[in-house]
Each structure stands twice: as C-alpha cells, then as structure tokens.
Write a structure and sequence with these properties.
It is built from 13 helices and no strands. The longest helix has 33 residues. 53% of the residues are buried.
Length: 291
C-alpha cells in the first residue's frame, strides 16, 4: 500500500502544479522558460543529494528511455498549463490510463479483460465530453495537443520504467529532470522564446527554489511508485490529480466546469476507481494465495 498512498500524495501535488507555473508567469516567465528553470532546480538538488550520499547514477537504456519520455510528459504538461484552461489540460492528460491499458495488453503480455474494455470506453467517453462533444482538429488548441502528448508520453515512459530493471529512483529522477529541462529548451527554441535574462533574476531564483523544493519530491515519488506499480494502475491512481486540479482551478481561476466537463471528469474518475479497485483486489487475492 505504500506506493499507492505515496501516489495519491503525488497526484494531489501534481494537481496543484499549475499554481507555481502561473505565479512565475506573472513574474514575466513563459511556460517553457519556467520549465527550464524548474527542472534545472530539481536536477541540481537531486545531483547534490546523490553526491552527498555517494550514490552512483547508473541507469539502463530501457530506464533511460522511460525517463526521457516522462521528461517529455512533464515538459509538455507544464507548457500546456499556460496555453489552455487548467481544467481542460488536466482532463485531457488523463487519457493516459487508456493508453496504459493498451500498452500493457500489447507489449507487457497482460490479459485483456471485460473490465479493461469498460474502463477504456469510460476514459474515451470522458475525453469526448471534456472536448465539448467536438473531436474536430479545430476544437483542439496547442495546449490541448500538448496535454494529449503528455499523457501518451507518460503512459509509455511509465511502462518502460516499470520494466527497466533495478535503477535507483534518484538516478531516474536526475535523468527525468535533465530530459524535461532539455525538452523545455526545445519548446522555447521552437516558439522563438528568448532565454531568461539577468533582469528576471527574482523569477529565476524563485523558479530554481520551486524546482528543488516542490517539483523534485513530486518527481521522485512518482518515479519510485512507477517502478513498483503497473502502468495502468499507476495512471489511474494519479487521476486524483483531477480532483485537486479541477477544484483548485475552478476556485482560484474561476474556470467554468460546465455540464460537459463535469460529466467527462466523472467518467474518467469512475474509470480510475474501477481500475484501481480491480487491481488492488487482484493483488489481495494473489497475496492470500501465497500465504
């Protein structure tokens, strides 16, 4: 239960992640610039901890690829939060459990059960409602597209980390933060954004501290749990982020939920609960059989 409980804590913190992003945005930083600095702060902090503990940064190729894809997920998610509604981005990201179920079935040899079909259909129906019942490309903005990319990258990356062998969570965290920083640099370059200058020193300092104090523990917990929980269960447990993110966005940003989004969110959360309960029931049965 420890990975499950820590995943819940991490999910709540991820749901509130839009707050520091929007805060440094008011200080003059863009989403990509903030992503560079947040992840730089996290990378510097975990690197210092590993040096102090004399812990090597050994990491296998599969785990490295997983860390890179999770870095893509974190970077694109952070930028998406500045380009679209917080509620919309969070809900679209949570197609990740649907991708994870498909990955487990297609590549990890998991059996496809009727409950998998149910949770997949609920997730897709929820996304359809979040988009207002319109699946045309015209209805999807850049932030929406990045949210979808983030969910897909997380699903594949989590699967690779789960099967990546005995790599330490701090080494995975360092690799993920570095990849996320590089991807944020890529976003800044692609959109023609300038790098932060000395005139933005207060925002730079604040972002580095937030990265070390807030982002680092969340990434570390997320990756530690990803090594111990199957990708689909992990993604479904993270849907608690929907609750903290959607509620906080509605309260502090006055973003309208509306009947479509509310219904879609309930379907996605319902799918998460079904999957989580089924996985925990299966784990309990296996544990009792072993005893």
């Amino acid at each position: 239960m420890t990975p499950v409980l820590l995943t819940f804590v991490s999910a709540i913190l991820w749901g509130l992640w839009w707050m520091p992003i929007r805060w440094v945005e008011t200080m003059g930083l863009t989403g990509a610039q903030a992503g560079i600095l947040f992840n730089a702060g996290a990378a510097l902090a975990i690197c210092a901890c590993m040096i102090a503990a004399r812990q090597p940064a050994n990491i296998g190729m599969r785990a490295m690829l997983g860390a890179a894809l999770i870095g893509v997920a974190f970077a694109s998610y952070s930028v998406a939060l500045t380009l679209s509604d917080v509620v919309r981005v969070i809900l679209l990201f949570y197609l990740a459990p649907a991708w994870s179920k498909i990955i487990e079935w297609a590549f990890l040899g998991q059996r496809w059960h009727r409950i998998s079909t149910l949770t997949l259909l609920l997730s897709l129906a929820g996304a359809y409602l979040v988009l207002g019942g319109d699946l045309s490309l015209a209805s999807i903005n850049a932030g929406d597209a990045l949210a979808l990319l983030s969910g897909m990258s997380w699903a594949v990356g989590a699967a690779l980390v789960f099967t990546g062998g005995n790599t330490s969570a701090p080494a995975l965290t360092l690799a993920t933060a570095i990849w996320a920083m590089l991807l944020s640099l890529g976003f800044a370059w692609a959109t023609g954004e300038a790098l932060p200058t000395v005139s933005a020193a207060p925002a730079i300092g604040a972002s580095l501290v937030i990265g070390a104090v807030y982002l680092l523990p969340v990434i570390l917990i997320s990756l530690w749990s990803a090594q111990r929980l199957p990708p689909a269960l992990l993604s479904f447990l993270f849907t608690l982020e929907i609750v903290s993110g959607v509620v906080s966005g509605a309260l502090f940003l006055e973003e309208q939920l509306g009947l479509w989004r509310l219904s879609g969110g309930l379907l996605i959360v319902g799918a998460a609960l079904i999957e989580a309960l089924a996985a925990l029931r299966k784990a309990t049965v296996v544990s009792e059989a072993v005893q």
